[in-house]
Amino acid sequence: MTSADMVGYAATVVGTSMMLPQLIKSWRTKQMHDVAAGMTILFLFNCVLWLVYGVMISATPMVVANAIGLVVAITLVGMKLYFHDK
Amino acid sequence: MTSADMVGYAATVVGTSMMLPQLIKSWRTKQMHDVAAGMTILFLFNCVLWLVYGVMISATPMVVANAIGLVVAITLVGMKLYFHDK
Q1: Under a CB-based contact definition with an 8 Å cutoff, are residues B86 and B30 in contact?
Q2: Model's pTM, two decimal places?
């Protein structure tokens, strides 16, 4: 593995775990008024596209990371819709 | 360019523009109470790592996209700090 590969893997891990603090905070407070809906939807598309890319180039770690990211993204979008009127 | 490359480029564009709706919303409302600080900081690290990776593999579009993403990230972290007590 080259040093560039290592940076790329670190970036993948950071990128897919990025929304975990938001998920935890929103779950605890049940408040998402200040969180942009567009951001949660773009994160969902981001995970879908990287997942498809991972499958196409047969990069298993990328597929696993973005499958987890996708679950987080769907949960966030759902929470944004559900907490909308609260 | 293969179809996998095209999906990868689309994912890069979506990933780096992901925070734009959040930036616009937070700028307008001056409210970031519900936005997790950890999420803005991880997005900043995400952009730094992809920027470094882009430089290492000499991928100019990736460098440009993540340089823009980094400016967005720094602005978001700054806004989160500045709007904290409001």
Answers
A1: yes
A2: 0.91
